[in-house]
Write a structure and sequence with these properties.
The structure holds 2 protein chains of 2 kinds. Chain A has helices at about 5-10, 15-45, 55-65, 70-100, 100-115, 125-130, 135-160, 165-170, 175-215, 220-230, 230-260. By secondary structure, chain A is an all-alpha fold. Chain A folds into 2 domains: about 1-50; about 50-270, MetI-like fold (Orthogonal Bundle). Chain B has a domain at about 1-15 and about 25-90 and about 200-265: Rossmann fold, CATH 3.40.50.300. Helix content of chain B is about 30%, strand content about 25%. Chain B has helices at about 50-60, 110-120, 125-135, 150-165, 180-200, 210-215, 250-265; strands at about 5-15, 25-35, 40-45, 65-70, 75, 95, 170-175, 200-205, 220-225, 230-235. In chain B, helix 2 (about 110-120) packs antiparallel against helix 3 (about 125-135) and helix 2 runs parallel beside helix 4 (about 150-165). Classes of the chains: A mainly alpha, B alpha/beta. The interface between A and B is medium-sized, with 22 and 25 residues. The structure holds adenosine-5'-triphosphate (ATP) and magnesium ion (MG). Adenosine-5'-triphosphate binds near residues 16, 54, 98 and 208 of chain B.
């Protein structure tokens, strides 16, 4: 084996760093390009359609200073988190309860699968009719969206558990509840995290859409209210902050995923 | 029930469910009977596919039987009904399966402690015992490795001590040293004999290595090809403590080896 081949096999630390630097530079370059495109669009289309990037930046700064933006962000975040927690709890609990009875599962499964097809946003008018105009209809919407994503992942995860591990745990004296928590739950956490990566951004989107329609606070309200006043700067501000919120949530999730699923052998090709 | 028997297998039979409706599935095990004395190290040899794993699954109650019975301390196991099975018989029958079945998200030590945790018996004393077993089988320094970071033989050893650590009165072993090289194998066999000599567990040890069966056992059963039943029984009168390396050239060993070999072939 030549020295060159050896060098490429054992990736050296400086090599890793250079790769990382290149990726970083690429990201910053892309961001600059995006802002540039935005500026060009603003200059050609005009303020009505595309506000100036600087104007949006100024608005974010002003509304942050006045406390309005943090408050609205908090309202949306709170709603998303509560709705998410409710949907997530149900999405975990129902498959584990179904596990206790294969016959019940057989009876219920087609109905649950069919109800996946119902467009959840189409239910908003119904939720408003049933649950009024407070947080309740919004929480139902968010909860339901999150429920399906989590339910399907956990359900599939339970089905895919290695039956030999469950048998082994029984032989070792584990009770059914210990098996649920320590074997089945553990082996499906990678599935669960994959579901969270879809469900959490969806929860925020659902909260915003709910706020378009009901209530007088939150990022959704900011966006919709600005639109009504033909304030494109306000619309953009809302969208940008909402995006930042989702990104922040994703980053937290990513960290948690890495910590919880650290035991898994990772595919080095996908690592940066 | 035979005097001093802790396990008694009588007329045991097994056929799996037919693959297609109406089709006849073959008998894997038929009319298989033997008993195991308290404190005995019984070895069972048989060709690959004979039904050795299937037999142990039924004794451990992880699978149903199609006929016959298994008695543990005169208690008859409900082997007909999948729902009534009691895998491991309330921790009285330990089972070291052919696959290591380690929990991939737990480290080596975490796997060894798992039975103690779920049985609510993890304390300073049992933890120390786990640690000393880890050292006894040469896993010291690998406690914090996940299963995928261990070699095949290390995983086998981990699964072995995971059962030894909670000290069940009967232990079933399904080719526990199948995946290791000859030297490590000899070391592990010596370890097993030593640990068995200290605790005098009842062990049912399945293997297709005839030399291993003779070197370890008080008695060796030879299984016939499917449908499996006991073809013959050999008392191993080689005195203990045995020297795993030196035993291979003893005249009793050679005679037994040739006799069993003729039957398995
Ligand atoms: N779940 C199953 N369904 C149908 N047939 C099975 C099943 N499990 C095992 N068998 C069949 O039973 C027979 C005995 O299998 P078993 O695993 O008990 O053999 P073994 O003696 O342990 O072999 P080895 O030494 O290779 O481990 C084989 O013919 C196998 O195909
Ligand atoms: Mg086998």
């Amino acid at each position: 084996m030549s020295a060159l081949e050896q060098a490429s096999l054992v990736e050296s630390a400086p090599g890793m760093n250079r790769r990382r630097l290149l990726v970083m530079a690429g990201r910053i370059g892309l961001a600059a390009l995006l802002v540039l495109a935005w500026q060009v669009a603003a200059d050609t289309a005009g303020d009505l359609y595309f506000p100036q990037p600087l104007a949006v930046a100024r608005r974010i700064a002003e509304d942050t200073a006045s406390g309005a933006l943090p408050w609205n962000t908090y309202v949306t975040l709170r709603l998303s988190v509560i709705g998410f927690l409710l949907g997530c709890a149900a999405g975990i609990l129902v498959p584990f309860l179904l596990r206790l009875s294969p016959r019940l599962t057989g009876a219920v499964e087609p109905y649950i699968m069919a109800s996946v097809g119902v467009p959840k946003y189409a239910l908003i008018p119904l939720f408003i009719l049933w649950f009024g105009i407070d947080d309740a209809p919004k929480l139902w919407l968010i909860g339901l969206l999150v429920f399906y994503v989590v339910f399907i992942a956990v359900f599939a995860g339970i089905r895919n558990v290695d039956a030999r591990l469950v048998t082994m745990a029984r032989v070792l004296g584990a009770s059914e509840s210990v098996i649920s928590r320590r074997v089945i739950w553990k082996s499906l956490t990678p599935f669960f995290f994959a579901a969270l990566k879809i469900a959490l951004p969806r929860a925020v989107s659902a909260a915003i859409i709910g706020e378009f329609l009901v209530g007088n606070a939150g990022l959704g309200f900011v966006i919709e209210n600005s639109r009504q006043q033909v304030d494109s700067t306000g619309v953009f501000t809302g969208i940008l902050v909402a995006t930042a919120l989702v990104l922040a949530i994703n980053a937290v999730l990513e960290r948690a995923d890495r910590r919880v699923n650290a035991w898994r052998p990772v595919d080095r090709h996908m690592e940066i | 029930m035979a005097a001093g028997a802790i396990l008694e297998i009588r007329g045991l039979a097994k056929r799996f469910r037919a693959r297609a409706p109406g089709a006849e599935s073959p008998w894997i095990i038929r009319d298989l009977s033997f008993s195991v004395r308290e404190g005995e190290l019984l070895t069972i040899v048989g060709p690959s596919g004979a039904g050795k794993t299937t037999l142990l699954n039924m004794i451990a109650q992880t699978d149903t039987a199609s006929g016959g019975e298994v008695r543990f301390r005169a208690q008859v196991a409900p082997l007909g009904d999948a729902k009534a099975l009691r895998p491991g018989l309330s921790r009285q029958i330990g089972y070291i399966t052919q696959d290591d079945n380690l929990l991939p998200w737990r480290t080596c030590l975490g796997n060894v402690l798992f039975p103690l945790e779920v049985q609510g018996r993890l304390d300073g004393q049992t933890r120390a015992r786990a640690q000393s077993l880890v050292e006894a089988v040469g896993l010291a320094g690998f406690e914090n490795h996940y299963p995928h970071e261990l070699s095949g033989g290390m995983r086998k050893r981990t699964s072995l001590i995971r059962t030894l650590v909670y000290d069940p009165p009967v232990i079933l072993m399904d080719e526990p040293f199948g995946a290791v090289d000859a030297q490590t194998r000899a070391l592990l066999q010596a370890d097993l004999l030593r640990l068995w000599g200290e605790g005098r567990k009842t062990i049912v040890f399945v293997t297709h290595d005839i030399a291993e069966a003779i070197a370890l056992g008080d008695r060796t059963l030879v299984l016939s090809r499917a449908p499996a039943s006991v073809k013959s029984e050999h008392l191993i009168s080689i005195p203990r403590p045995r020297d795993i390396g030196g035993i291979l050239t003893r005249p009793e060993f050679v005679t037994l080896y040739q006799a069993i070999r003729a039957e398995v072939a």
